[in-house]
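Reminder to self: keep the SMILES exactly as supplied, no canonicalising. Ligand is guanosine-5'-triphosphate.
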Amino acid sequence: MESSLELSNSLGSVSSLLSGCRTFKVLVIGDSAVGKTCLTHRLSAAQFPSCVEATIGVDFRERLLDVDGEMIKLQLWDTAGQERFRKSMVPHFYRNVHAVLFVYDITCRASFNSLTTWVEECRRNSLGQEVPRFLVGNKTDLRDVIRADGLVSQEQAKNFAKTHNMMFFETSAKCTSRPRCVREVPYQRDKVEDIVNAVGARLKRQKNPTAAYNPAYSGSFQVLNKKKEKEMWSCC
Ligand SMILES: Nc1nc2c(ncn2[C@@H]2O[C@H](COP(=O)(O)OP(=O)(O)OP(=O)(O)O)[C@@H](O)[C@H]2O)c(=O)[nH]1
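Structure tokens returned for the bound complex:
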């Protein structure tokens, strides 16, 4: 497993050097089922997936982005939320990270409360404060079907973001139709592109990112010997 990771990362680095396009590793973390996989599909400009399974290990998706005339590549690491599917891979997730998206589900207070655990995991893995952090409250399309007192309020989330020096967004990975969402429920504006642009703009200002972890494909690494085995290196 580890040698596969190292080999693929080296191949990716070569590809990145040849393309001359700066590549940034963006880690996506948060509890299981908050919507990290769906969100990374959307962030990489793909559709909301019709069917998703729990991530085993990590999946990769990429997004090429034009930021003020410079093409940069966001390499989105969609990590497993379930501890049993993360196992010994965690240190790999945190190596050479350029930005982190902390995702919670606005309808699941427990996923918001867990954010401190995810922040702590970053600290344990020596992620410096200079690495930009983004807080994303997902599933805003469910705001109307959940009792207000069951929702994580924007105020709470903003305070958390401020305390931890994060840029805050709420979005729905599912709500893909911008005009329909804007007209029907104004606060459900499709913010996915806003998130991509904010991450891109913030990273573009970063000088000389390390180019170590650059798989030039979409694929996945998974912890083996699990019942729910997907194919290794499955394309997205
Ligand atoms: N209503 C709604 N459902 C969503 C949204 N995003 C994801 N989901 C659903 O939430 C469930 C979990 O989504 P995933 O993307 O697999 O969650 P995850 O965080 O990647 O989960 P792990 O892989 O276990 O870490 C799926 O049934 C999705 O269809 C959203 O914005 N709105």
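Points to follow up:
Residues 178-189, 210-218, 223-236 have pLDDT under 50 and may be disordered.
Residues 188 and 197 are 18 Å apart (CA to CA).
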